[in-house]
Amino acid sequence: MTTVVEPVEAAATAVRAQALGKRYKDKWALRDCTFELPAGRVAALVGANGAGKTTLMTVLAGLLRPDEGAAGVAGRVAFVSQEKPVYRHFTVAEMLRMGARLNTVWDQDRAGRWLERFEIPLDRPCGRLSGGQQAQVAFAVAIGSRPDVLMLDEPLANLDPLARREVTAELLGEVAETGMTVLLSTHVVAELGGVADHLLLLAHGRLLAGGDLDELLARHVVYTGPRSDVPPALGKVVEARHRGGQSTFLVELPEGRPRPVVAGQWAERPVTLEDYVLAQLAATRKGLKG
Ligand SMILES: Nc1ncnc2c1ncn2[C@@H]1O[C@H](COP(=O)(O)OP(=O)(O)OP(=O)(O)O)[C@@H](O)[C@H]1O
């Protein structure tokens, strides 16, 4: 079995994983992970703590060798790890100079604009910046390298709510302008609505769901109605909650059948990304899956 990270040939596919597996000693952190991420997408990589998100990104970035399967990325990759690596004694300007030296392609204006946008002082040593500001420096260096695929591990973790919104908006702007593909891992799912258009959901090292987000959400529905053991229409129950006299079901609708119409005391509503991810995580935690 091939265990190399190699360039993807098809231009329409930015990232490809084929039966990818990685273990630490005898424990598999990632197993049988197969997916294709089309170019120009913003993909959210979600999963519980320890699900394998960092491992997957590190393997895709070519920094860790897989033990099984193969991974490929089209073009140049920039990876910003969870630690947001910056040199404490370097000023922000020196970090940019280092970016210019280390990268074969470098766009100083692009990196500079990002820092200006977030009001990061260029003359300040990185060690005297806040955690969120250090993250912005790491993003600026990654953006300056003009990657085809930008991978960000927990990019929103250190940021205040406004900065989160601004970072996601700026990332979308970069995607629109450059056509790059973004893969970002996060626990802040609520703030990905309108940002991510693709989902990769990991549980216990395995890919539980993946694909176009709109298609995925359209295949699911939330029903609320009188207390019941079963939902009002056919489908796979992803999550069932019962409170007082009321039941709520998140259901995956059967493929190839017309969408059911529910009546009487039952109401239905569309599934949001947060509904979907929380229901899947709850199901895996209860040991129903994975
Ligand atoms: N260097 C390592 N040595 C041994 N086990 C490791 C190592 N790194 C990760 N693991 C294990 O591999 C599994 C996946 O870890 P990983 O860091 O990829 O998860 P994650 O989804 O990124 O988690 P989090 O959301 O907490 O950051 C976990 O069980 C973890 O304990």
UniProtKB/TrEMBL annotation:
A GO MF term: ATP hydrolysis activity
Which InterPro entries does the UniProt record give? AAA+_ATPase, ABC_transporter-like_ATP-bd, ABC_Transporter_VariousFunc, P-loop_NTPase
Sorted alphabetically, which keywords does the UniProt record give? ATP-binding, Nucleotide-binding, Transport
Residue span, ABC transporter domain: 15-229
> Per the record's keyword annotation, is Nucleotide-binding included, yes or no?
yes
Spell out the PROSITE patterns in the cross-references.
ABC_TRANSPORTER_2 (PS50893)
What Pfam families does the annotation carry?
Answer: ABC_tran (PF00005)
Question: What highest taxon heads this organism's lineage?
Answer: Bacteria
**Does the keyword section mention Flavoprotein?**
no
SMART domains found in the cross-reference section: AAA
Official protein name in the record: ABC transporter ATP-binding protein
Q: Which organism is it from?
A: Saccharothrix coeruleofusca
